Amino acid sequence: MEKTSLKHLKDDLKCRRDALSLSHEDMKKESDAWGMRIMVLSLASGSLETAKLQMGWDSDIVMLIPIIISSIIGALSAYVRFRDFATKMEILVKAQGELTNTLTKLRDADHLSPSLKSLYNKALEHLDTSLYPDVKASYIKKSNKNLIGVAQEEARYMDKLFKLNAKRRKALALNPEEDEDVSDTESVSSRASRNSQSLPRNFERNFETLHRRVASEIPTIREERTEEEIQSFSDMEIDVRLDKIPL
Questions:
Q1: Can you tell me the distance from the alpha carbon of 139 to that of 128, in angstroms, rounded to the nearest whole number?
Q2: Ranges of the chain whose pLDDT falls below 50
Q3: How many helices (H) and strands (E) does the chain have?
Q4: What is the pLDDT of residues 197-236, one digit of tens each?
Q5: Taking phi first (over 0 means left), then psi (-120 to 50 degrees means alpha), and beta for anything else, what does residue 221 get?
Q6: pLDDT for position 7
Q7: Other CB atoms closer than 10 Å to residue 125's CB: what's the count?
Q8: For the purposes of burial, counting CB atoms within 10 Å of the CB of 148, is it exposed (0-12), middle (13-18) or buried (19 or more)?
Q9: Residue-wise pLDDT tens digits, 72-86
Q10: Which residue among 25, 62, 103, 160 is least enclosed by CB atoms within 10 Å?
Q11: pLDDT of residue 188
């Protein structure tokens, strides 16, 4: 299928780049598995040799087991060298880098130009020389499946986000006293900052209400005094002064 638009080129390169990543991942897992087998056998052979020297085992079976383990290790090492995992993974990494670089240039472009089309063809050439046709087909199939799964998860996320925003708008419509800005793009931090700014206003309003309540409960003080009260205050003041005079 011929790709005639910029979006088609980007989608195709993304799929093929992911196919290279999946191939590299499987090859690395296989290489690590063989390396782990060789390491375990080497440790077993060394442990057996140490135990033989410490325990003084001289039987023919004990002498034969390390030879068998060493032969197996040599055969596995030869198989790993024959598969040449390191070189193949290096080729995949280079091809993946070329496709990633081309994909970045396509994303930065506004329209499809002949130079971008040439870069796209070179990226396909790197892919064709990195994988065999049957292997490439299987990994492209896996890559397409993964991309479809990612698109489905994004669609589910957007659907849940839309439903949550609809519920929030409905709740605010039922409670018009809450002065909030119903916005789909409003973040939690912005709502928290707005609530923190409203705290001083609420505290001041509550303090004024409490002050009025306390003032209403305190009995009023009479400003007018009788002559008897005034005379009693004067006598009290004189008594206090006489007490303070040293004898």
A1: 13
A2: 179-189, 192, 199, 218-223, 233-247
A3: 7, 0
A4: 554 555 556 556 655 665 555 444 444 555 555 555 444 4
A5: beta
A6: 86
A7: 12
A8: exposed
A9: 999 999 999 999 999
A10: 160
A11: 46
Residue type, 110: D
Report the distance separating Cα 168 and Cα 174, nearest Å. 10
Tokens of 15: 């799929």
Q: Which amino acid would we find at residue 224? A: E
CA distances from 115 to 119, 122, 147 (A): 6, 11, 27
Q: How far is the C-alpha of 62 from the C-alpha of 109, rounded, in Å?
A: 69
CA–CA separation, 96 and 19 (whole Å): 9
